Amino acid sequence: MQRFVEAQNRRGELAEALGFRLGGGRGKILLQIRDGPVTLGQLARSNGVDAPYATLIVDKLAAHGLVERRPHPDDRRRKLVALTAAGHDAIATSDAILLRPPPAISNLPAADLEQLTELLARLLEADATEPEAPTSSAPAAPTPGSGGRRAGAPAGGGGAGRKPGR
């Protein structure tokens, strides 16, 4: 199964079509604003990053002409991040490439495709009803711009087992 999934990785094809990569959280943020403008604070919170890092990602998207900052209608101090026409085009290109079924699936006989569709529906249903298991017991990695602190960690250090003055 892993070999099949790896063979269908289309990130390179997408980067070639767009002329740049959407890594580093850029693709995720781009998709989060596809339904309408959001604030930088909302983007930071929903991605588990600090505001300066969310700003950095938005700056990179803006440099490619995919997003723009607009004044917030209720608060002049805040800005909304919105897609440009080029941003909508990039999402359409992404959808066309990433949502296209691989030939190994689209070339299946109708009966096999129906069976696969039913199996995938059952897997998705089972996944939706099971509680989400923790992915790791390890602490989160430091976020960029956090001075090496992990997301949510207080400033000033004082880690477990450390004595003051050491």
TrEMBL record:
Question: MF terms per GO, please?
Answer: DNA-binding transcription factor activity
Region of interest (Disordered), ranges: 123-166
Q: Which residues form the HTH marR-type domain?
A: 1-125
**Low complexity bias: start-end ranges:** 131-144
For biological process, the GO terms are: response to stress
Name the domain of life this protein comes from. Answer: Bacteria
Q: What InterPro entries is this protein classified in?
A: HTH_MarR-typ (IPR000835), MarR/SlyA-like (IPR039422), WH-like_DNA-bd_sf (IPR036388), WH_DNA-bd_sf (IPR036390)
Question: Spans of biased composition, class Gly residues?
Answer: 145-166
Under the heading Pfam families, the entry gives: MarR (PF01047)
Q: Which residues form a coiled coil?
A: none
- By its UniProt entry, which PANTHER family does this protein fall under? MARR FAMILY REGULATORY PROTEIN, TRANSCRIPTIONAL REGULATOR, MARR FAMILY
Q: What is this protein called?
A: MarR-family transcriptional regulator
Ranked from the top, the taxonomy reads: Bacteria, Bacillati, Actinomycetota, Actinomycetes, Frankiales
